[in-house]
Design goal:
Layout: E1 2-7, E2 12-19, E3 23-31, H1 33-37, H2 44-66, E4 75-81, H3 85-102, E5 106-110, H4 111-117, E6 129-134, E7 139-146, E8 149-155, H5 161-171, H6 178-186, H7 214-222, H8 224-227, H9 236-262, E9 266-270, H10 277-284, E10 290-292, H11 296-299, H12 303-315, H13 339-343
Parallel strand pairs: 1-4, 4-5, 6-9, 9-10
Antiparallel strand pairs: 1-2, 2-3, 6-7, 7-8
Length: 346
């Protein structure tokens, strides 16, 4: 079955065709970065307008690269949450309209389920595993029992990890998007130059797997001099290396706690921050674990992850009604909240 997947939740206009949830026939990602760069961050209104302008050519290009006509597509899927409302609405409305006009099934997809699925496009991964979802909007540690069955164990109590990368980069004038730039500058820095604090959320077991990045962000931005170690220089490279080291340590320590507590030895990462080279090397050091990262092209936003996970809903006969709407947020995780409320599609 060939599914056309559309993704427009943030600043990438993306469309892919994936066969049977596995074979990527095309994967077109049109990035809007140059249009947001001058503002040092994503401008929602510009994002929506660019999506509206680009969606048709991007979908046409995805069909062309897959060497298929629209008639040969079995179903259409779009991200419907979470993300920027105006941006989401473009891809969702386009997908629903296309499905309606061609009388094909439509499937609305939770973006985070897409990120969790990305590694499955190139690996056969049995469930359950411990999922690590790290993006611009989310930092989630979950026990993953199936493609739409995630038990959230921990999340951030304030900023997401990607947000921290982006804010640090913006403050030091390093550029946008921050994560990739910090990752690159950190290669020439010394992580030992600063002793930034690793947040402690250890009072009782309430936050056993939770993380926090707001304190680290403040320390790096406003108090870097306080944490500079004698004999080291305050260079951008050193700041990036030490910040990245602390941010990765923060999330990896909680992730490993989940691994130890559950005894599950497979870890699967997803989301833009899963591209981070230090996060990858830190987990690679744990040779006793099977840590799986998506290829770099599938870490950031793309249509293939949406088409891939949609296939599994479709196979189960689970399609979305034409009045399915978009939603900017998924409910903040609270203990006791059922995972379906967090990750469910409607
Ligand atoms: O998944 P994604 O493309 O969009 C969201 O769903 O948010 O993630 C974007 C985030 C941004 O915060 C970006 O700075 C971060 O991923 N990112 C990275 C790297 N590449 C992208 N963060 C750290 N290291 C990277 N190499
Ligand atoms: Zn994303």
């Amino acid at each position: 079955m060939k599914v056309l997947g559309i993704e427009s939740s943030c600043d990438e206009t993306a469309c892919a065709v994936v066969e049977d949830g596995k074979t990527i026939l095309s994967n077109v990602v049109a990035t809007q970065i140059p249009f947001h760069q001058i503002y040092k961050g994503v401008v929602p209104e510009i994002a929506s307008r660019k999506h509206a302008e680009w969606i048709l050519p991007v979908v046409k290009q995805a069909l062309k690269e897959a060497n298929l006509t629209l008639d040969e597509i079995d179903a259409i899927a779009s991200t419907n949450r979470p993300g920027l409302m105006g941006a989401l609405l473009v891809g969702l409305t386009f997908g629903k309209t296309l499905a309606w006009a061609t009388n094909k099934p439509f499937i609305a997809i939770n973006h985070m389920l897409g990120h969790m699925y990305a590694a499955h496009l190139v690996n056969d991964i049995p469930y359950p595993y411990i999922g690590l979802l790290v993006s611009g909007g989310h930092s989630i540690i979950a026990k993953v029992n199936g493609f739409d069955d995630l038990e959230v164990l921990g999340t951030t109590i304030d900023d997401s990890i990607g947000e921290a990368f982006d804010k640090v980069s913006k403050f030091y004038g390093l550029g946008y998007p921050g994560g990739m730039i910090i990752d690159r500058l950190a290669q020439n820095g010394d992580p030992k130059a600063f002793s930034f604090p690793v947040p402690k959320l250890d009072k009782g077991d309430d936050h056993r797997y939770d993380v926090s990045f707001s304190g680290l962000k403040t320390a790096v931005i406003h108090q870097a001099d306080l944490f500079l170690k004698p004999g080291y220089e305050k260079t951008n490279e050193n700041i990036c290396a030490a910040f990245q080291e602390t941010a990765c340590k923060t999330i990896v320590s909680r992730l490993l706690r989940a691994v130890d507590d559950t005894g599950i030895k497979t870890v699967v990462a997803g989301g833009g921050v899963a591209a981070n080279s230090r996060l990858r090397s830190m987990l690679a050091e744990r040779t006793d674990l099977n840590c799986i990262f998506p290829p770099l092209k599938l870490c950031g936003d793309n249509g293939a992850m949406i088409a891939g996970v949609a296939y599994h809903f479709l196979k189960r006969g689970d399609t979305s009604p034409i009045d399915t709407t978009a939603s900017a947020r998924i409910p903040q995780f609270k203990r006791g909240l059922k995972n379906l409320e967090f990750f469910g599609r409607r």
